[in-house]
Amino acid sequence: MVGLTVALAGATGVLGRRVATRLRAAGHRVRPLVRQPADAAGLDGIVGDLTAPDSLARWLDGCDVALHLATALRPGADGRIDWARNDALRDLGTAHLLQACARLGVGRVVLQSVAFVQAPSDEAWCRGDEPLADRPFLRSAQRLEQHAAGSGLATGVLRGGLLYGPGTALSQAWAASAQADDWRVPGDGRAFVSLVHVDDMAAAVVAATTAQPFVRDVMAIVDDAPLRWGELLRGLAATAGGGLSPAPAPPPTLPSFRVSNAQARLRLGWAPRHASWRDGVAGEPWARAPPPSPRTTRLDDRRSPSPNAPGALP
Ligand SMILES: NC(=O)c1ccc[n+]([C@@H]2O[C@H](COP(=O)([O-])OP(=O)(O)OC[C@H]3O[C@@H](n4cnc5c(N)ncnc54)[C@H](OP(=O)(O)O)[C@@H]3O)[C@@H](O)[C@H]2O)c1
After folding, report:
1. By alpha-carbon position, which residue is closest to atom 24 of ligand 1?
2. DSSP per-residue string spanning 109-149
């Protein structure tokens, strides 16, 4: 659909910048919400804050769709993440956004959640209808989804996998590991992780924003090949020309999450261009050797085949 006016929160972010570029290239108008006046000039944005409801009307007025791609996970000057600020943004910020959209007649909203809000078990594929993971740090993302479901608006919730690719925190950590030749496996390495390249995430956001008719759904946006942390770290180390450190890192804070993208393939017609991390890191400056091939089918994969294939139903 051409010619939408899109209100974008998170426009200065790693993901938001890519989404704005793609939307404009496709002929849509983008109206960023920015917190700093200096960013407003550069991005042609409106100054405001999702946690300050009075600042939202001028930004949203006359828009067709609103996008919530804001997060507050960048560490502050002391190197720490202010989790309370991030929780407020996901919970109250989302509520303010949806109320303002309802008031101003912005009927469609795309919001970004995380692919690990659900965790069926350590091994099983997560297809989207499993119970929510019971971890306190996930409650604000779960509240975001509850606000969307109860808003009465047409909402599309995209549960993103861990983002990697140029500019992301994960890729910066991998580059630092390559430089130091220090690759540590979290815990026993058996927990699953579901990744998505940031360019594929941006493509999915654009697909959800412009879909005609709008897709009211909750969908995971992850690549085709979730894998165990141990397998990922071993492969990354080999790609950097190094090896695993014998010292383990602390176990992952995230639950084990092995997530299917079948719903997004089906409903959005989206598919990742980077099917696995092997495709996604190929251009990284630290990637010296070609990534090793995936291991051959393991016993647990035969019992639980991948649902991430064109045409596979969740
Ligand atoms: N990183 C991951 O692995 C991952 C995984 C799944 C989902 N996600 C989701 O992906 C989305 C984008 O992540 P990202 O990596 O692009 O984040 P990012 O680079 O840290 O950017 C965050 C953006 O949010 C804006 N922001 C922060 N507080 C705000 C507030 N109170 N009101 C309005 N805007 C505010 C920031 O603006 P300023 O420039 O003013 O700070 C910035 O534009 C988020 O919804 C995040 O939850 C990320």
Report:
1. 70
2. EEEEEETTSB---SSSPB-S-SPBP--GGGHHHHHHHHHHH
Is the preceding peptide bond at 213 cis, omega within 30 degrees of 0? Answer: yes
pTM of the predicted protein model: 0.94
Domains of the chain: 5-303 (3.40.50.720)
* Residue range 58-117, pLDDT digits in tens: 999 999 999 999 999 888 888 888 889 999 999 999 999 999 999 999 999 999 999 999
Cβ–ligand 1 contact at 162 (below 6 Å): yes
Mutate which of 15, 91, 116, 171 for ligand 1? The one with the most ligand atoms within 8 Å of its CB, which is: 15
pLDDT, tens digit, 9 for 90 and up, residues 119-171 = 777 788 998 888 888 888 899 999 999 999 999 999 999 999 999 999 999 99
Which amino acid, 226?
A: P
Does the Cβ of 201 fall within 6 Å of ligand 1?
Answer: no
Distance CA 79, CA 223 (A): 30
